[in-house]
Design a protein that fits this description.
The two termini are 14 Å apart. The protein is built from six helices and seven strands, in the order E-H-E-H-H-E-H-E-E-E-H-E-H. It has one domain: 3-Layer(aba) Sandwich (Rossmann fold), CATH 3.40.50. Helix 1 packs parallel to helix 6. With 208 residues, it is an alpha/beta fold. The longest helix is centred in the middle third of the chain and has 17 residues. Helix 5 links the parallel strand 6 and strand 7. A five-stranded parallel beta sheet has the order 2-1-3-6-7, sandwiched between helices. Strands 4-5 form a two-stranded antiparallel ribbon.
Length: 208
C-alpha cells in the first residue's frame, strides 16, 4: 500500500497556518485512502542529526571513492538512517512556512542531511547529477504572512517555493503539487484567503 510522509517544518504547533493546512490535507487523504500508511516527521522533535565537520568529511570521502571510518562513519550512518526513513515512503507532504524569504533552517538541515551521493542523487563527471527519488510524488503547503505574488519588492521575495520545487526536481521527484496561503495582511481579508487555501488543500489531497 502507498506510504505518505508529512515532513513538518513549523515549530508553532496549533498556531501554525502551514500545519493547519497540512492537517486539512491529511484528514482528506486519510478519508479517501484509509488503508494507506500516513506518518509525520516533525523536524523539531530532536531526532534530526546535525551535518557538521564529520558528516561533511564523510561525504567527501564517499565522493573520492573511499569508505568513512571512525567519527566520519558514525556521522554517515546517522545521515543514512535519516535518508532510509525518508526513502521508505513514496508520497511526501511538506508543510513549509516562509522564513526570511526562504525555508526554515531545520528544513534546510534535513535536506542537507539526506541529499547524499548514492542516496538522493548520483553524479557523473561528464553528465552531472541524476535524481534517484524517481517514481515518487510530493505536495507542498507553502505559507507566508507578508510576501505574496504581485506585491511590491518591499514585501519580500520568494526563495521558498522556488527552492523546494528545484530541490525535489533535482532529486528526481517530478510530480509536485502546491497549496499556497499568502494573505496580504495589510489590505486583504485573511479569513477569506484562509478558507480558499483549505479548499485547495482538500482538492489537492483528493487527487494526490
Amino acid at each position: 500500500m502507498p506510504r505518505l510522509l508529512h515532513v513538518s517544518a513549523s515549530p508553532r504547533g496549533a498556531r501554525s497556518e502551514s500545519l493547519a493546512l497540512a492537517t486539512t490535507f491529511l484528514d482528506t487523504y486519510r478519508e479517501l485512502h484509509p488503508w494507506d500508511t500516513v506518518d509525520t516527521f516533525d523536524l523539531w522533535d530532536g531526532t534530526l542529526p546535525e551535518f557538521g565537520p564529520s558528516a561533511a568529511a564523510a561525504k567527501m570521502t564517499i565522493f573520492g571513492g573511499g569508505t568513512p571510518a571512525g567519527a566520519e562513519a558514525e556521522a554517515w550512518a546517522r545521515a543514512r538512517a535519516t535518508f532510509e526513513r525518508f526513502d521508505s515512503y513514496d508520497r511526501y507532504l511538506f508543510s513549509v512556512p516562509m522564513w526570511n524569504a526562504g525555508i526554515p533552517y531545520v528544513l534546510k538541515q534535513f535536506i542537507d542531511v539526506v541529499s547524499q551521493p548514492g542516496m538522493v542523487f548520483g553524479f557523473d563527471p561528464a553528465s552531472g547529477y541524476t535524481g534517484l527519488l524517481t517514481g515518487k510524488k510530493a505536495a507542498l503547503v507553502l505559507t507566508s504572512a507578508v510576501y505574496g505574488p504581485g506585491r511590491p519588492a518591499s514585501f519580500g521575495s520568494d526563495f521558498q517555493a522556488t527552492y523546494m520545487r528545484d530541490w525535489l526536481h533535482w532529486a528526481g521527484v517530478r510530480e509536485v503539487d502546491e497549496v499556497h496561503f499568502r494573505p496580504d495582511l495589510a489590505t486583504a481579508d485573511a479569513d477569506a484567503a484562509r478558507v480558499r487555501a483549505h479548499e485547495v488543500a482538500r482538492e489537492t489531497a483528493a487527487k494526490f
